[in-house]
Amino acid sequence: GPATMDPGERRSLNSELWHACAGPLVSLPPVGSRVVYFPQGHIEQVAASTQKDADAHIPNYPSLPSKIICLLDNVTLHADPETDEVYAQMILLPIQISEKEALLSPDLEVVNKQPTEYFCKTLTASDTSTHGGFSIPRRAAEKVFPPLDFTRVPPAQELVARDLHDQEWHFRHIYRGQPRRHLLTTGWSVFVSAKRLQAGDSVLFIRDDKGNLLLGIRRANRQQTVMPSSVLSSDSMHFGVLAAASHAAATSSRFKIFYNPRQSPSEFVIPLTKYHKALYNTQFTVGMRFRMVFETEESSVRRYVGTITGLGDLDPIRWPKSHWRSLKVGWDESTAGERQHRVSLWEIEPLTTPFLLCPPPLALRSKRPRGMPGEDDLEMLMKKSHMW
Amino acid sequence: GPATMDPGERRSLNSELWHACAGPLVSLPPVGSRVVYFPQGHIEQVAASTQKDADAHIPNYPSLPSKIICLLDNVTLHADPETDEVYAQMILLPIQISEKEALLSPDLEVVNKQPTEYFCKTLTASDTSTHGGFSIPRRAAEKVFPPLDFTRVPPAQELVARDLHDQEWHFRHIYRGQPRRHLLTTGWSVFVSAKRLQAGDSVLFIRDDKGNLLLGIRRANRQQTVMPSSVLSSDSMHFGVLAAASHAAATSSRFKIFYNPRQSPSEFVIPLTKYHKALYNTQFTVGMRFRMVFETEESSVRRYVGTITGLGDLDPIRWPKSHWRSLKVGWDESTAGERQHRVSLWEIEPLTTPFLLCPPPLALRSKRPRGMPGEDDLEMLMKKSHMW
DNA sequence: CTGTGGGCAACGTGCCGACAA
DNA sequence: TTGTCGGCACGTTGCCCACAG
């Protein structure tokens, strides 16, 4: 059952677990680095969180640019105490910086480190029913759980895992059945009902450096944990985003934003280096082919290929000459109906390099299901070429 | 069990039920009337909802006055789908109106009409335990439930009641036990767990004009349904309130606010007539005695007596000469620790009339527990004198 | 008049291996 | 290898009245 919990939840949570819950696509710029903040993207997130249309009748602030270069003063990781939805709190300090300065002293880009000793399983109907326990994939159990004492019959142990709120959960881990399998029995249903998990949601376990077990959840995309927000009207929130950023920019003072990786359609705080690379190292033209990373239903990554069909402002009136979603795109696969029809420069990987015509040697490829090409290796090469 | 539910919940809910859930103190100005909107009060509500301090470092908008006179363009009643917490959405249109105009054509004040055929019971430990059902006070059952057929043994019927979301709940109503009593058995526990009711929360039943049963809940004051709001920072919300009001006032356009009666420390949209009456019909001086209405733990009303100890701005820097909480007060009863130390003019009833020295004749008093004076009658007389 | 608790039956929860995908 | 099911034991839920405040 549940145990202690950090009251107030002020400090940052376990980073490894947070990133595992956030998913493989989410990476946060390092504290102290320069970033670009896009008010449009922020408003998109707020609109997504409140399920309201963003294109209201609200005028833009005359002096507020479509991008604000900031120093990322602080980042803390959090999780909603009700839903365990992960989010990050960022303190941004608007700064004046010349293009030259920025290009001469690029920030380090930090890639998202998914934990190594971890597994993530999408729950089946049997896993979430009251009739039984949780069936652990064999590989997963062997990788992250402490080894069982197989001299005992049946082999079993008690597992203790801590969630994002530092709450303890106890499970009986047993290896039984015909054929044999790993199961979580006692304690599992308490966890399922406490977290209100349903079939389709995912659970993940991590073994950290010290051998402690951590666990987290990733809810299925469908159930958007939307709160109708009877606190502030969506218009007022819209105003709030603009006014807070405008005030901070005008007075060179810090402002605070929340980034909800699993709610937001796109990241709206981008490393300055990444932004500049995308902007200056590539010529974006209509007809250009590109790839873009998405998270699949099964919590892994998948790249989709598309073509740039247009260039231009998403909102020419209020946000002229903004780089936010300035590319109109089409997708190769017809099942791409729900994918964005507008993306931003830094989200895509151009496909203009000769590597496409000359795939890497087989020796460099890792094993892959369904005969897809060795995408990760290809990506590494792409990145290199892109860097330069 | 649950049945149909209004998707989107756009339209206004049943007014009678909403007011019953909101409590006896809550009254809403009529649509079309003139009201005074106090940004400070709005900010207080937002701060209470997010459990953050309101006195941040945020500057006031230079052109934003502490009160904005508006036409109440529309009011719709709502309830949080998760918690059933009631709230009202108001559309306000800032208007220019001279003092003279306002005084010459006063709006009708509408008092809150609590339903007549209704009862409200605070749940006991037995009511909420899984061991049994719900014990209905005899008077209550006889007043609002359809009469039982006492020729049957035991007398029993099925009740169907609709909640704020138009969801149906079915209960078995039976009259049994030794001595006999009214009980809700089958269906009751489903309701308790679905609404997550605890001992101390209240449940209320209404029979409307057409004989339909309605039911609602009032949660105990202690469990503040606070959401940490990972959507917008409290600073941004603060900005949002100010910017939305400021923009609406500057452009004479409508803006939308939410009023959460059970979250907000005080009403911040006041009928213009009520505001003027309080402002012009009374001289507020230090030492003046007054009474003020509060809701008791048992969901009834109670008046407390206090003394004005000071007059002056709550926030002289950002909101100079504001009437919002401009009165510093002390309370007669020592148990008044948690009551506000600052109130606004329109919240109190002055005790300066001769009626205090000359209580109304006993014949006019209604029966009252614990020998308290006949407050309601007194209040009626007070109001009359106040009107004039 | 109504809150709590003992008694008891019905139901749901949860552990097990069997089977099959 | 692992998702679902039938079987079964046991704990909880929920209806009844007795009793007392």
UniProtKB/TrEMBL annotation, chains A, B:
List localization entries.
Answer: Nucleus
Identify the GO cellular component terms for this protein: nucleus
Q: Which sequence ranges are marked TM in the entry? A: none
Q: Does the keyword Transcription apply?
A: yes
Q: Which residues of the intact protein are shown?
A: 15 to 402 of 807
Q: Which family does it belong to?
A: Belongs to the ARF family.
Report any one BP term from Gene Ontology.
Answer: regulation of DNA-templated transcription
Question: Per its UniProt entry, which superkingdom is the organism in?
Answer: Eukaryota
This protein's gene is called LOC112290334
A single MF term (Gene Ontology): transcription cis-regulatory region binding
The UniProt subunit note reads as follows: Homodimers and heterodimers.
- Any idea where the TF-B3 domain is? 119-221
Species of origin = Physcomitrium patens (Spreading-leaved earth moss)
Stated role:
Auxin response factors (ARFs) are transcriptional factors that bind specifically to the DNA sequence 5'-TGTCTC-3' found in the auxin-responsive promoter elements (AuxREs).
Assigned keywords, A-Z = Auxin signaling pathway, DNA-binding, Nucleus, Transcription, Transcription regulation
* Signal peptide annotation: none
Name by which UniProt lists this protein: Auxin response factor
